[in-house]
Design goal:
The chain is 41% helix and 26% strand. The chain contains five helices and five strands. Strands 1, 2, 3, 4 and 5 form a five-stranded antiparallel β-sheet that branches. The chain is elongated, with a radius of gyration of 19 Å. The two termini are 23 Å apart. 16% of the residues are buried.
């Protein structure tokens, strides 16, 4: 929960940094210093926990953006697709419970299925320090254990705290 609170604050700070200030509201030097201090603290904490980060400087705005490595797990069609409906329903419930637990426990940032009938069935973006951990967590999924889905994990970089649009 603490991680979610800090992420929400960072999201607000980064969102404000990327927008023009409303007329009549000027940022003071001390506010800017506080934002930079907070981002530096986040980077130090992530680094101490084993996360990979780097700073990206936006050429247009000259804003420094903290980039973090996440891991995208592609859930792909597995070899065992012939479960009876009752078993499939049970697996689906267990699969959704697993994804919810990953999110609630702070390991996953977002999950969801694709809207077509292709071989890649969905994704989960893991917010963990390394590939081994992301792969291990993804392979705990009951659908994967049953062979209905397979996992393929890739490192992925994104700006820390930026929202989906």
């Amino acid at each position: 929960m603490e991680r979610l609170k800090k992420a929400a604050v960072l999201l607000l700070l980064l969102g404000l940094a990327c927008q023009e200030a409303p007329k009549g509201l000027e940022q003071t030097v001390s506010e800017e210093g506080e934002k930079e201090k907070y981002i530096r603290e986040i980077k130090e904490k992530l680094t101490a926990e084993g996360y990979q980060t780097f700073d990206y400087v936006d050429a247009e705005t000259n804003d420094t953006i903290l980039m973090q490595q996440y891991f995208i797990a592609f859930l792909k069609t597995g070899p065992n697709r012939d479960q009876p409906k009752e078993t499939l329903d049970s697996l689906q419930n267990a699969h959704l419970a697993h994804l919810k637990k990953m999110y609630v426990d702070g390991y996953a940032s977002i999950s969801g299925p694709f809207g077509d009938d292709g071989d890649i069935r969905g994704i989960t973006i893991y917010n963990v320090p390394n590939l081994k951990m992301a792969d291990s967590l993804a392979n705990l999924d009951p659908m994967v254990k049953a062979g209905r889905l397979e996992i393929e994990v890739h490192p992925w970089w994104a700006a820390k705290g930026f929202p989906l649009r």
